[in-house]
Structures are given as structure tokens and as C-alpha cells.
Amino acid sequence: MIRAGSHVSTRQGYRKAAEYAVSIGGSAFQYFPKNPRTLELKAFNRTDAAKCAEWCRLHGISSIAHGPYPVNPASEGEAARRMTLCTLNDLDIAEACGSIGVIVHFGHGKGKDPLQGYRNIIQWINSVTEHWHGEALILLENQAGDHGPMGTAPEELVQIRSLVQQPDKVGFCLDTCHLFASGEWKHGEWSSFAERARRIGFWDHVRAVHLNDSRYPSGSRKDRHAAIAEGWIGREGFLDVFATPELFDVPFVLETPASMDGTHRDQLTLVKQLSGEAFK
After folding, report:
1. Long-range CB contact pairs, 219-222, < 8 A, 24+
2. CB 127 within 8 A of CB 72
3. What radius of gyration, in Å, describes the C-alpha atoms of the chain?
4. Fewer CB atoms inside 10 A, N or C side of the chain?
5. 257 CB contacts (<8 Å, ≥6 apart)?
6. Section 213-232 average pLDDT
């Protein structure tokens, strides 16, 4: 079966977050390294982070950090500088916690020239990686299209990675809801997308999956997550995802609404059942 978990709170510390993730049936988890609503830097507890890393190593648990929502790699000027410092802070925390990397949304340009937005993303990544010397990766996440088409296609992520100065410091996070909502994954056509991703080398750099169902149909460009198998992707769609060989060793993390008990325990149980069925 696959490695799967959910997004968890770090209110009681990074080590406690890892323990909680496992207590509800996870073998992976995601967390915000700091306040997800601002670009403010955080002086974090390195002892707690080291305990988290050690505990996860002992128990075979994978983790990923998710950067603050205001980070937009397509920005420029002073805003881009602040976002660079913010992500360097996130990478430092992720490294200390033993995490794979920090998820950053692809970004969206606000100017009249769409190509400038892509140039800004390349420059921003270069600015971060120039000052980052750890193992934690920048994990670019595909977008749903609710802010425009930028960052919805796997070809864009692959191309951006190929153009930055240190591509080895960049990986991808695939969000299933975003992929579906953007229309890049059409209902019943996962195999077509998987083969397309295979041809361009996209799977080679996917280091995490956001496992989310979609409240709206393919092509809606609405980023609204549904519980697993309760949205438009549905049971059959996830069976196809789980059967993709390139994803067998990639952690899956739920960002879906919690179940009635306030946790993702039931959904994780379902994910394990579906993944086991997909592997038969």
C-alpha cells in the first residue's frame, strides 16, 4: 500500500505533530512550518524540530512542509525579496524537521506580459537556491486555474525546472484536485495524463501528492476540495492514481475536509483500502 497521511497542526510542536499524524493512521504528514497567512519569519525551536526528524526516521514517516499562501513566485521587486527570505526560513525549518521539502504554489503573473510572470518565477527560484545549501527541496505545486491558466500544465513545471540554475533543488507536488479542476485531467482519462507526464519526464521529479477529491467537475477551474471518493474524481479515479507505478514510493497527503470525528482517520482507512485494491 501507499504512504499516506494528512495535513496536521503544529500547535503543540513539530514532534507532537508527527506523533498525531501516526495516531490517526498516517505514515506521512504535511504541516505549516509557521503562520500560513503572512510572510513573517519564525525563530523556531530547533531542539523540537530535531526530535521530529529523529522520530520520523525511527518510524519510517515522511513529511512535507507547506509554505505560506502569500508566497507568489511570479512576483517581483520588494515583494519577491520578502518571499525569498520567507521560503528560505521555511526550508530551514523543513530541513531541521527532516522533511522532503517545502511546497510552493507555482504562482500567477499580474502584468500584461504573461511571459514576464514565468521569468519572475525562474528568477525567484534562482534567488532562493543561491542561498540554500540544504537537502530540503522547493516543491512546485500545479494550480487549479482559478487565478488563470498559469501553472496548470505539467509541461510548465518541467520547463521551469529545466531553466533554473540549480534544478536539483526543485521537485514537484501534484495536487489531484487542482489537476482535475484545471481540466488537465479529464474524467476517466487518467491513463492519458499519466502517459503524457511520462513522456515529458514529469514523474521523475514528483516528490509528493496532495490527495484531494474535487467538489466540481473537470475544467471548472474551481479549487474546492472534497473528501476522498465523495467528489467528481471518485473511487475509480483514485484507483487509477494509486495504480500509477511512478507514485508507489511517493507520499500522499490529504488536504480534504475532516470527517465527523474531526480527523482524517476514516479517509486514511479508505485510502489504504483503495490503494490495496489498486495493487491487486
Report:
1. 219/181, 219/182, 219/183, 219/186, 220/181, 221/144, 221/145, 221/146, 221/181, 221/182, 221/183, 222/144, 222/146, 222/181
2. no
3. 18
4. C
5. 225, 226, 227
6. 98
Other C-beta atoms lying within 10 Å of the C-beta of residue 235:
13
Query: E strands within 147-251?
Result: 170-175, 206-211, 213-214, 225-226
3-279 has CATH 3.20.20.150 classification: yes
Three-class SS of residue 194?
helix
Task: Give the model's pLDDT for residue 280.
Answer: 65
Q: Does the pLDDT of residue 230 top 90, yes or no? A: yes
Given a contact cutoff of 8 angstroms between Cβ atoms, the answer to whether 19 and 31 are in contact is no
CA dihedral 237, 273, 259, 219 (to 10 degrees): -10
CA distance 223 to 182: 9
And the C-alpha cell for 42?
519564525
Q: Are 124 and 83 in contact (CB under 8 A)?
A: yes
Find where cell 509528493 sits. Answer: 208
Question: What tens digit of pLDDT does each residue of 74-120 get?
Answer: 999 999 999 999 999 999 999 999 999 999 999 998 878 889 999 99
CB 227 within 8 A of CB 259: yes
Check: pTM over 0.85? Answer yes or no. Answer: yes
Residues 162-181, mean pLDDT to the nearest whole number: 98
Question: Any residues with CB less than 8 A from the CB of 229 and at least 6 apart, and which?
Answer: 213, 235, 238, 270, 274
Query: 29: part of which helix (H) or strand (E)?
Result: strand 28-31
CA-based angle 6:8:9, to the nearest 5? Answer: 170
- What lies within 8 Å, CB to CB, of 136 at 6+ separation is 65, 91, 94, 95, 99, 100, 101, 102
